[in-house]
Write a structure and sequence with these properties.
three-stranded parallel sheet, 3 strands
């Protein structure tokens, strides 16, 4: 999992995302704790499905219940219909299968930015 995190972080930096804007966590519980933090407001979250202590789907669902409105993209090496359904049912905006390409993350950043620039009452397709 550490390698996947490093690849994702490096790819985001190659796309121009500042290093200090990227927060990496080790599991779903930490992701949930970060989303609750008053110190940062996240516009975009990449959530892996298979994480220790709490899956990405469960963490994302809890984030949505607690009012998180940012864009959430699921990353998974298992792009089965079951996993895709779990992600979408949890309130994720999209899913990207690993291994991903830089263009996949670039497209996600553009979608998140477009969503954020629109009226906050806009409902995304889920």
């Amino acid at each position: 999992m550490v390698v996947n995190t490093q690849i994702t972080k490096r790819t985001l930096q190659n796309l121009g995302v500042p290093k200090e804007s990227i927060v990496c966590v080790h599991d779903g519980v930490e992701a949930l704790e970060q989303s609750r933090s008053q110190k940062r407001r996240f516009s975009l979250v990449f959530m892996d499905h298979e994480m220790p202590r709490m899956t990405g789907s469960k963490a994302a669902k809890k984030m949505r219940v607690e009012g998180f409105e940012g864009w959430i993209t699921g990353l998974t090496g298992n792009a089965s219909k079951k996993i895709q359904a779990a992600f979408l049912d949890a309130g994720l905006d999209e899913m990207i299968a690993k291994p991903f390409k830089q263009d996949d993350l670039s497209s996600t950043i553009a979608s998140a930015a477009q969503c954020e620039s629109k009226d906050s009452t806009m409902k995304r397709k889920r």
